[in-house]
Write a structure and sequence with these properties.
The complex is a heterodimer of chains A (about 290) and B (about 130). Chain A has about 290 residues and is α+β, with helices and mostly antiparallel strands. Helices cover about 65% and strands about 10% of the residues of chain A. Chain A has helices at about 5-20, 30-45, 45-50, 55-70, 75-155, 185-200, 215-235, 260-270; strands at about 160, 165-170, 205-210, 245-250, 270-275. The chains are: A alpha+beta (about 290), B mainly alpha (about 130). The interface of A and B includes residues 106, 117 and 120 of A.
């Protein structure tokens, strides 16, 4: 390069002036710049800020560099301080930005977790519902089985379904002639009945005795009642609780056949055992 | 390269460039508008509640910058506007991060409550 002597002088003078204008000498340390340096270094060593706010950190670095350069060049203190301030604030922004990003990540994680908890809850609920359904089905099966067993038992007893419930009839032939005492065949029926009552504890019975129309009314009523009592006593002997049994003697009331023939009269001489439903209640004979 | 300029021209250019370096000739109108917008944005996300000091500092510096513009001290005005903008930015990021942290806390709390409710329900369900 070639300069004229005059222009060289001009340059030299203006350069000198330039340095003078920039305060000159070795500058004192700028406290805010020192603070910015420290803050920046701390941020730079914080892995969360480095990974979650790299842009803001870079901006802080740029401002810090400007401040540092100006200080080195001996620029005006106000300028150095300005960029140091900017650097400081940028570091703070980087810190907040990192916190914000971390929190947002956390929100996402927490939402996922919440979803999982809800799904688990639903699964647990479904499992419970399934278990309840299974249990209900099992119960229904058991009920059905019990009902079937009961109907088999009642069949064995030769009980008939009537309006008043299941009714078992002990015919005249199961009793001694014109007496209340049971014959062996009658005891067999009583055995079955007591087995039934042993198994179905919630069921009660009423034993009702009837006769034909032959003989005095009073006599017939007594005989019918005694026959019912015989059945009851036989059941009590077999361990059935007396509270579960009631007896009635109706005599010649409520015939089931004509008393005009021997066959009809025989059918009228009978003992009926009414078996209650689960409630244990037995409606009285319609008056 | 060799450039030879008359002495007067050299001096004039030098003086001009020195002047230019010392102070801007135009007011930082755009910068002021941007700063104003930054403050507004920060306030909209709740800077008043979450970063009251930073947002106040931003406002004061913007006022100062506007004063300096009136005094035609454009360079200095721009610096104040820059500082005001960075204060506003800090206020905004602080407000946002505080709110996000709050959201995290609330979400965690809700998960905890949810878990407890489920546990209770299952216990109740078990004894049915």
């Amino acid at each position: 390069m070639l300069f004229s002597k005059r222009s060289f002088t001009t340059l030299a003078i203006s350069g000198l002036l330039f340095i003078l204008a920039g305060c000159g000498g070795t500058p004192d340390k700028n406290p805010l710049l020192e603070k910015a340096k420290t803050h920046y270094q701390q941020a730079e060593q914080d892995s969360m800020i480095v990974t979650k706010a790299p842009v803001a950190l870079k901006e802080a670095e740029e401002q810090l560099e400007k401040s540092r350069q100006l200080w080195k060049d001996g620029a005006d203190k106000e300028l150095v301080t300005h960029y140091a301030y900017m650097a400081n604030q940028k570091v703070a922004i980087a810190r907040q930005t990192a916190r914000l990003n971390a929190a947002q990540d956390e929100v996402e994680r927490a939402q996922t977790q919440r979803q999982k908890v809800l799904i688990q809850a639903r699964k647990a609920e479904a499992k419970q519902a399934e278990q309840r359904a299974q249990k209900a089905m099992q119960q229904a099966r058991e009920e059905r089985q019990k009902a079937q067993e009961l109907s088999e038992q009642l069949n064995n007893l030769k009980a008939k379904s009537t309006e008043r419930g299941m009714v078992l009839t002990l015919g005249d032939v199961l009793f001694d002639f014109d007496k209340a005492s049971l014959k062996p065949g009658g005891f067999r029926v009583v055995d079955r009945l007591s087995n039934f009552l042993e198994e179905y504890k919630d069921r009660n019975i009423r034993i009702e005795g009837f006769t034909d129309s032959v003989g005095g009314e009073e006599y017939n009523r007594n005989l019918s009642r005694q026959r019912a009592a015989s059945v009851r006593d036989a059941l009590l002997d077999r361990g059935v609780n007396s509270q579960r049994i009631t007896i009635r003697g109706y005599g010649e009331q409520y015939p089931v056949a004509s008393n005009g023939t021997e066959a009809g009269r025989q059918r009228n001489r009978r003992v009926e055992v009414i078996i209650s439903d689960k409630s244990g209640e037995i409606p009285e004979r319609g008056q | 390269m060799c450039i030879k300029l008359p002495f007067k021209t050299t001096m004039a250019v030098l003086a001009g460039s020195l002047l230019f370096a010392c102070s801007s000739t135009k007011p930082p109108t755009q910068k002021l508008a941007q700063t104003q917008a930054a403050i507004k944005q920060a306030e909209q996300v709740g800077a008043q509640d979450y970063a009251p000091l930073a947002i106040r500092s931003a406002r004061q510096k913007l006022d100062k910058a506007q004063d300096l513009v009136k005094q035609k001290k454009y360079e200095k005005a721009k610096r104040f506007a820059d500082e005001s903008a960075v204060d506003a930015e800090l206020a905004e990021s602080k407000a946002l991060s505080e709110k996000a942290q709050k959201a995290v806390d609330e979400l965690r709390e809700s998960i905890k409550t949810l878990k407890e409710e489920i546990a209770n329900e299952q216990q109740a369900g078990g004894t049915q």
